[in-house]
Automatic annotation (TrEMBL):
PANTHER family tied to this protein: GLUCOSYL/GLUCURONOSYL TRANSFERASES, GLYCOSYLTRANSFERASE
InterPro entries attached to this UniProt entry: UDP_glucos_trans, UDP_glycos_trans_CS
Tree of life domain: Eukaryota
SUPFAM superfamilies referenced in this protein's UniProt entry, alphabetically: UDP-Glycosyltransferase/glycogen phosphorylase (SSF53756)
EC number: 2.4.1.-
Alphabetized UniProt keyword annotations: Glycosyltransferase, Transferase
Stated family: Belongs to the UDP-glycosyltransferase family.
Keyword Endoplasmic reticulum among record annotations: no
Gene it is expressed from: 5GT
Protein name: Glycosyltransferase
Enzyme class: transferase
């Protein structure tokens, strides 16, 4: 039967331009569009839109419509300007807000008015646009509930306690209803010095909580987590916020590959994995943003070699600078000596679920962490640097018991000896291996899919009756 998409609400899903936001935002957009009567428009920055859709999106089977917004960097993002204080947020608050406002207006004029704007975290400017148009907004939190709860309590009474002790790594903070977290386990924005360039990222989160507080009704938030993964954090805020735990969002490998900002390496790394023994390979990737310097590339190459285990390493071309030849050189050495394989970008979900992968050395981005837990069922070595990564490492090591957090310096630098020590520890731990397999069983894709679908249906029903 034809799905009459004018019968239910129209969601406008707005994503930050980064891969770690696009993956869960697109996942949600597709699942929302699977609910009868629902219309969905997906919007990310023009630069990212063009990378996902080098040609115009094909009309037809895809139930989601795509309309990009302009953030003032349509030709190319400039990471230096982005890193410089408030510069990018100024562009978002001005250019992107104007562009999104026009999109909302055009959709209304075309007889498809938006009923709810869903925005990935840090895109609070989109909630401001929604408010101007008299439309409700709901954040899509792409980090763990534990990080959200920490921010929420920080902005609701605990700011001075945390700030006064920010310099003491081991100072223990007790957020209501949660296990104690040390300063070094908190999202880095809560303890970063106000003079630091990165401190500007706290502003949009403070504004997000303020906007949520300003609603007449109890605010809602969608979080890529589940009650099994983070029961304490969810219940710690649930008297103030309606949490829709719609995770783990486990995208099918083909869908992940289709929505990637990077070209998949054409080396046959999956066939290479097929030739390796079960549970033997060290998979190492630091996600889409982290750029390794030359020394770090050398240290990792040495540490991996010293483990004596086969490895698959995602080393993006922008790493190793200023020696841009670094990744190819490292790859040639690894592959020449048959130590392992080095690729520029892979289908990570497919790699993590491969029987040969025994452990994942990761920067602990939330997408990577949930994929490892629920699709991979693999042990982890965490090398967190900033944002929510330390909190994700805390969950992985202390709460779920499936890995260890490596000692890294303030820049996240992982030295060869520490890499080897951690890999040896996790690969030698039958207990971590068995816990990791149990998590995969509990949260596996099929199991998660039913729960996620149910939670998304509840969310649509609640929005429809608001
Ligand atoms: N990813 C991928 N191929 C790679 C490396 C990463 O598809 O070679 C994907 C990974 O599956 C995850 C995302 O990129 O979904 C990275 O998101 P995460 O939150 O882990 O880290 P970020 O890139 O935001 O730092």
């Amino acid at each position: 039967m034809e799905n009459d998409r004018s019968a239910g609400p129209h969601f406008l899903v707005v994503s930050f331009y980064l891969q770690g936001h696009i993956t869960p935002s697109l996942f949600l957009a597709k699942r929302l569009a699977g609910v009868a009567g629902v219309r969905v428009t997906f919007s990310t920055a023009v630069t990212s839109h063009r990378l996902i859709f080098p040609a115009a999106p094909a009309a037809g089977d895809d139930p989601v419509s795509y309309i990009p917004y302009s953030d003032g960097f349509d030709d190319k993002h400039d990471p230096d300007k982005y890193a410089r204080g408030d510069y990018y947020y100024d562009r978002l608050n001005a250019d992107a807000a104007k562009s999104l406002s026009a999109i909302v207006g055009d959709l209304a004029a075309a007889g498809r008015p938006v009923n709810c704007v869903i925005y990935s975290c840090f895109s609070t400017w989109a909630a401001v646009v929604a408010r101007k148009h008299g439309i409700q907004s709901v954040p899509l939190w792409t980090q763990p509930a534990t990080a959200f709860a920490a921010y929420w309590h920080f902005f609701h009474g605990l700011e001075s306690l945390v700030s006064a002790n920010a310099g003491d790594r081991y100072f223990s903070v007790r957020f209501p209803g949660m296990p104690p977290l040390q300063i070094c386990d908190l999202p880095s924005l809560l303890t970063v010095s106000k003079e630091d360039d990165w401190a500007c990222h706290l502003g949009p989160l403070r504004d997000m909580c303020a906007i949520m507080d300003s609603f007449d009704k109890k605010p809602k938030i969608l979080i890529n987590t589940s009650t099994e993964m983070e029961p304490h954090a969810i219940s710690s805020v649930s008297n103030m916020v309606d949490v829709y735990a719609i995770g783990p969002m486990l995208t099918e490998p083909a869908a992940t590959a289709a929505a990637t900002l990077f070209d998949l390496d054409d080396k046959d790394y999956l066939q290479w994995l097929d030739t390796q023994p079960d549970d033997s390979v060290v998979y190492i990737s630091f996600g889409s943003m982290r750029v390794l310097n030359k020394l770090e590339v050398e240290q990792i190459a040495r540490g991996l070699k010293d483990t004596g285990r086969p490895y698959l390493w995602v080393l993006r071309r922008d790493s190793g600078s200023p020696d841009v030849e670094s990744p190819p050189t490292v790859a040639a050495e690894a592959e020449g000596k048959r130590l392992g394989m080095v690729v520029e970008w892979c289908d990570q979900v497919r790699v993590l679920e491969h029987r040969a992968v025994g452990c994942f050395v990761t920067h602990c981005g939330w997408n990577s962490t949930t994929e490892a837990l629920a699709v991979g069922g693999v042990r982890m070595v965490g090398a967190p640097m900033w944002m929510d990564q330390a909190t994700n490492a805390w969950l992985m090591e202390k709460d779920w018991g499936i890995g260890v957090r490596a000692e890294v310096d303030r820049g996240g630098m992982l030295m060869a000896g520490e890499l080897r020590r951690c890999v040896d520890e996790v690969m030698g731990s039958e207990e971590m291996g068995s816990k990791a397999r149990q998590w995969k069983e509990t949260l596996g894709r099929a199991a998660a899919e039913g729960r996620v679908k149910q939670r998304i249906m509840e969310f649509v029903k609640d929005i429809s009756s608001d």
